[in-house]
Amino acid sequence: MAAPPAQTQAQAQAGARAPVILKVAIVQQIDSLNPFLAVFQSSTEINRLMYDYLTAYSADDQTVTEGLANRWEPSADKLTWTFTVPQGKKWSDGQPITARDVAFTYNLMLTDEVARTANGSFVTNFASVTAPDDRTVVIRTKAPQVTMLALDVPIVPEHVWAKVGAIKDYANDRGPVVGSGPFVLTEHVPGQFIKLKANEDYWRGAPKYDELHFVYFQNSDAAVQALGKGEVDLVNRMAPAQFDSLEGKAGVTRNWAQGRRFTELLVNPGAQTRTGDPVGDGNPALHKVEVRRAIAQAIDLDALVQRVNHGYAEKGAGLVPPVFSTWHWQPEQPRGFDPAAANAALDAAGYPRGADGTRFGLRLVGRAGRAYDEQAAEYLKRSMSDIGIPLDVRLVSDNQLNEATTAATYDLAFSGWATNVDPDFVLGLHTCAQRPGADGKGGTTDAYFCDAAYDELYARQLSEFDEAKRVELVKRMQARFYDQVPSIVLAYDNALEAYRSDHFAKFTTQPAQNGVIMAQNGMWGYYRAEPVAQAAPAARGWGGIAAFCAALGAMAMLVAVYVRRRRATAGERE
Fold first, then answer.
1. What percent of the chain shows pLDDT beyond 90?
2. From CA 159, how far away is CA 425, in angstroms rounded?
3. 87: how many CB neighbours lie within 10 A of its CB?
4. What Cα–Cα distance (Å) separates residue 116 from each residue in 108, 113, 185, 303, 428?
């Protein structure tokens, strides 16, 4: 008779005690758990836990460190990069991770337009990707590419994904999902929860607790209340008043850090496909850059930061937040807040006030249930009224907002993005090539911006290995974007987080000094979380949260599997 299989460490420990579970509150819906399609910050955050990238960013200072590859070397002409995938790393089902998995992932993106939905800009310049053996990946590029150590693409197992049919139809949420990261997805009930378990065979070592659950809440008020009751352990993206309310609360520790995301107001510039066909139904008045500039000039960003962000943000300008100081840009001559000049510009552009005092109306779309959108919308209504533009405010769900901005059925819309360590991705969102094709596929555009001068600067920065010269190009790109106003960067949000320090003693922040726990350029906050030894998990069981989530699930809209864009839609995004 065969001997029973040996227990894993986690199984043996769980047999002696209740599993230790980290419960994280989320208020943004999941667009997809398919890493080729996932674009919401909530989705990409979970994918980072399931799949490693070719390289990673260190927790201490966000410098490049080992991912699936532990060595890399460019050729003298910078057109060929050779990466080494060491022996010994395994997929969660026990199969070895090899260079062939890496080549498969990138080649799938090169040959399938849908697979380029989320992260296609990283491989646009690739000429070929090969794996001459199990340990070696060779990537040849069409032109030198400075971002080769910043390819933020989840690597998937070939032995699983080679059997997948149409990428756009694959949900990738039937557990256990085979991955390479510190956690394995075991269950997903849309609108209720996502459950993952610790990967005992993770090559960096297993996490220090058993399970990680993401619990849905309708809004941040409900999430903060659950944190206060000890029903969840970790919350972020709080409104200022919610964050302030937790000061001095027993068992709760707050974390206030400079964040890596920005909030923006999209201004539909006349959306078009890559082939120049019109998309959506934006107001034609916004096609004129003079009108877009006037709208920007009518918004007092300092007042917005104080009244809506309550000081927990910095005034917006360029596309790269100040947390990445090397790449951050501020205008030498800001356009400033000047309603009189805005009114004069609109008159000169051919839009005088009518008998009722208005020029033309605009629609503003935002996310329902998010305090920022609700409060900022009211502020913008007053600001636009001062220049004769009445706003029709429509607050909708995450998915409805994403659908509107994807289809360009908006005039103004709240959005936002979390920026990577290297600025290339967020800059690439605004190139002409990132607009969708005629069939609506393949695009990851943010604002439907297309500008020859911007594209030329983008191509130059991508091949510039002299950092000082590249910094200059990146800042010139941000200046061009600011001048053309396809969107207005309203603010750089601070990270407002809190956790139950009576349940979990320590979280690793990125970077180590004044860094964030959630929404990192990595998975360190979750992976290195340390539970309090004396915590009694059974005392805070799943029952209460499950009942709440069941009721919430009845109201929640099922999330569409195929969503094009890596949008931080007003509910979160990055």
1. 85
2. 29
3. 10
4. 8, 5, 23, 40, 13
Count Cα atoms within 13 angstroms, Cβ side, for 468: 0
Q: b or e along 442-454 (b: 16 or more beta carbons within 10 Å of the residue's beta carbon)? A: bbbbbbbbbbeeb
- The torsion angle over the Cα atoms of residues 274, 280, 281 and 282, rounded to 10 degrees, is -60
Instruction: Using DSSP, state whether 399 is helix, strand or coil.
Output: helix
Given a cut of 80, whether residue 290 has pLDDT beyond it is yes
Residue where the block lists tokens 């070397």: 73
Spatial distance between the Cα atoms of 484 and 322, rounded to a whole number of angstroms: 21
The CA-atom distances, in angstroms, between 407 and each of 1, 273, 286, 468 are: 62, 10, 16, 38
Q: Which residues contact 122 (CB under 8 A, 6 or more apart)?
A: 109, 147, 151, 152, 153, 425
Under DSSP, is residue 542 helix (H, G, I), strand (E, B) or coil?
Answer: coil
Dist. CA 282–CA 234, nearest whole Å: 39
Exposure string of 183-220, with b = 16+ CB inside 10 Å and e = fewer, is: bbbbebebbbbbbbbbbbbbbeebbebbbbbbbbbbeb
From residue 399, give the alpha-carbon distance in Å to each of 192, 267, 366, 396, 446: 16, 19, 11, 8, 15
Q: Stretch 339-358: mean pLDDT, rounded?
A: 98
The closest alpha carbon to 328, from 114, 193, 478, belongs to 478
Number of other residues whose CB lies within 10 A of the CB of residue 467: 10
Task: Say what the pLDDT of residue 557 is.
Answer: 36
CA distance 565 to 436: 10
CB atoms within 10 A of CB 264: 24
Strands (E), 80-233: 80-84, 126-133, 136-141, 183-189, 193-198, 211-216
pLDDT digits (tens, 9 = 90+) for 82-103: 999 999 999 999 999 999 999 9
Q: Give the pLDDT band of residue 570 (cuts 50, 70, 90).
A: very low
Report the 10 Å Cβ neighbour count for 410. Answer: 26
Identity (one letter) of the amino acid at 315?
K
Tell me how far CA of residue 369 lies from CA of 187, 445, 514, 570, in angstroms.
26, 25, 29, 10
Higher pLDDT, 546 or 256: 256
Phi, psi of 481 (to 5 degrees): -60, -45
Report the amino acid identity of residue 238: M
Amino acid at 382: R
Q: Residue 99 corresponds to which tokens in the numbers above? A: 């260079």
Decide the pairing of beta strands 234-235 and 252-267. unpaired
Separation of alpha carbons 465 and 46, rounded Å:
32
Task: Check pLDDT > 70 for residue 322.
Answer: yes
Element (H, E) at 483: helix 467-484
Q: Nearest 5°: phi and psi at 530?
A: -115, 115
Examine the pLDDT at 556 and tell me if it is beyond 90. Answer: no
6-43: pLDDT as tens digits: 444 544 555 567 999 999 999 988 999 999 999 888 99
Dihedral angle sign, alpha carbons of residues 413, 490, 313, 319: positive
Cis bond leading into 176, ω under 30°?
yes
Three-class DSSP category at 546: helix
- Name residue, tokens 């956690």: 183
d(CA 172, CA 251): 37
What pLDDT does 443 receive? 65
